[in-house]
């Protein structure tokens, strides 16, 4: 019988140079990399998945979005579970859950099982993603905590850089199922090492009720609206009913968060105009990014004739640029303030998306694909670190972890809604990805829409973002290579607060 009693908090005394410190870093990097790699490699596998499972475009959309619905809806709750029942315990549970769901994805006999398994994967990701950073914050001595977080985020960035190459190689080699099955041996290493070498810890405020109703309503709202957008081309009455139910669930979520005693997303945090504005910028920016990376992976394979491996490698410069220069971008933002980077960065990304209009049949990589990818990377380098810093600076330091969690969830929700809506807006039919001509025409309609979202986000940032007050909280994850969500920050020097 599993003991669910609260775990006493322990003082953080581990040093990075110690044997235990090295094991903690190995464990947390390996665990978080499972979720990180899965998010970056699946897009490359989508055409092969569709062909092998005889699936239409809606299934490919759900293959991406089923994971994001549960991850975005439950990631805040996942942090609070770790604080209550033990961060290591919930982290290991998340790793094992994620691996079991990954095995189900890899063995899925049909599209329905694959989509359900992807939703289960998202639950595992919601448990292990906040847990990896929380373990570092809770375990290491305060003098070593910044270095430990830096190593964790840096190695995570390297994992993100490897992801597209690894995904393409697996799809071209043993097959797309191994994109998921590779998580199983990783978990078989990660979980035992965590149980043997990582000390257990819990939050100082591991009490009170969990906001299960809020989490359920939030996930339901995302799922229902996503379904309505993906199936809108059918024009069925059930689509309109689902859309209405999604709106009702979203309204109910807001009402519940305003009334329960321990909300996972306290509404008063939005009383900060700066926090609300930065999250609005986040929605626009990451909606564009989510749509871009979903469609470009298909465009390169369906229209340009790239293999999965070539398509994965084609996007690699974006991640490498972020890995190399995100820390310097953060330092520059500290000196000049976030307003200019948050204005210029989205504009550069918008220009990159318009450059992608040059990528058509038999596109030459050096002259047509690479320029757009490099400009995209430059834009992301410019804006990601200042975006995170602005989120942390816009609230009291005691709520910085919560603010980062909300911002991360908002980015993922924006991405999944874009993946659902862009094919509808651009006129993609259920079988468009099987026709190079049809998909290319829809892609050329979708990229200007993504660019418009980015320009709108840039204008909002210019109008609303202000220089933070001196002495406000700064990000600890200075190195970043994850292109589909901002880095998840704990946001304080002491043990990790509850991400409710």
UniProtKB/TrEMBL annotation:
Pfam family, one: MFS_1
Keyword Lipid metabolism: no
Membrane topology: Multi-pass membrane protein
Subcellular location: Cell membrane
Domain of life: Bacteria
Keyword annotations of the record: Antibiotic resistance, Cell membrane, Membrane, Transmembrane, Transmembrane helix, Transport
Transmembrane segments: 23-46, 58-78, 90-109, 115-136, 148-170, 176-198, 210-230, 236-256, 277-297, 309-327, 339-357, 369-393, 405-426, 446-465
Main location: membrane
Ranges where the Major facilitator superfamily (MFS) profile domain occurs: 24-469
NCBIfam families: efflux_EmrB
Entries under PANTHER family matching the protein: EXPORT PROTEIN, MAJOR FACILITATOR SUPERFAMILY MULTIDRUG TRANSPORTER MFSC
Record protein name field: MFS transporter
Organism: Streptomyces thermoviolaceus subsp. thermoviolaceus
């Amino acid at each position: 019988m599993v003991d669910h009693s609260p775990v006493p908090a322990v003082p953080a005394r581990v040093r990075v140079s110690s044997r235990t410190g090295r094991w903690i870093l190995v464990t947390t990097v390996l665990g978080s990399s499972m979720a990180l790699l899965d998010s970056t490699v699946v897009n490359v596998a989508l055409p092969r998945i569709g062909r092998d499972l005889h699936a239409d475009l809606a299934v490919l959309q759900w293959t991406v979005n089923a994971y994001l619905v549960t991850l975005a809806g439950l990631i805040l709750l996942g942090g609070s579970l770790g604080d209550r029942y033990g961060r290591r315990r919930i982290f290991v549970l998340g790793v094992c859950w994620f691996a079991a769901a990954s095995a189900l994805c890899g063995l899925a006999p049909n599209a329905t099982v694959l989509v359900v398994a992807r939703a289960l994967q998202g639950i595992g990701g919601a448990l292990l993603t906040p847990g990896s950073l929380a373990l570092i914050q809770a375990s290491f001595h305060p003098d070593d905590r910044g270095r430990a977080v830096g190593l964790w985020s840096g190695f995570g960035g390297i994992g993100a850089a490897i992801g597209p190459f690894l995904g393409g190689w697996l799809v071209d080699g043993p097959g797309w199922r191994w994109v998921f099955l590779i998580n199983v041996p990783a978990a078989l290493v990660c979980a035992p090492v965590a149980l043997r070498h990582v000390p257990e810890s819990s939050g100082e405020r591991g009490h009170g009720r969990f906001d299960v109703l809020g989490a359920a309503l939030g996930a339901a709202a995302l799922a229902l609206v996503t379904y309505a957008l993906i199936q809108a081309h059918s024009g069925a009455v059930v689509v309109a009913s689902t859309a209405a139910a999604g709106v009702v669930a979203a309204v109910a979520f807001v009402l519940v968060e305003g009334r329960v005693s321990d909300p996972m997303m306290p509404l008063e945090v939005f009383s900060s105009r700066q926090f609300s504005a930065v999250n609005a910028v986040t929605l626009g920016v990451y909606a564009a990014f989510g749509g871009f990376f979903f469609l470009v992976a298909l465009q390169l394979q369906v229209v340009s004739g790239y293999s999965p491996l070539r398509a994965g490698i084609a996007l690699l410069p974006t991640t490498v640029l972020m890995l190399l220069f995100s820390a310097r971008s953060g330092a520059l933002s500290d000196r000049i303030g976030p307003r200019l980077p948050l204005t210029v960065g989205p504009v550069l990304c918008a220009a990159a998306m318009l450059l992608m209009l040059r990528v058509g049949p038999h596109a030459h990589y050096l002259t047509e694909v690479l320029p757009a990818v490099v400009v995209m990377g430059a834009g992301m380098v410019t804006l990601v670190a200042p975006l995170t810093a602005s989120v942390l600076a816009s609230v009291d330091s005691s709520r910085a972890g919560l603010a980062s969690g909300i911002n991360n969830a908002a980015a993922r929700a924006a991405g999944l809604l874009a993946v659902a809506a862009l094919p509808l807006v651009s006129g993609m039919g259920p079988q468009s990805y099987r026709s190079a001509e049809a998909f290319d025409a829809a892609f050329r309609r979708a990229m200007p829409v993504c660019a418009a979202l980015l320009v709108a986000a840039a204008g909002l940032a210019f109008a609303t973002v202000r220089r933070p007050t001196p002495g406000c909280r700064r990000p600890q994850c200075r190195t970043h290579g994850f292109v589909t969500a901002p880095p998840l920050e704990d946001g304080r020097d002491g043990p990790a607060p509850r991400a409710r």
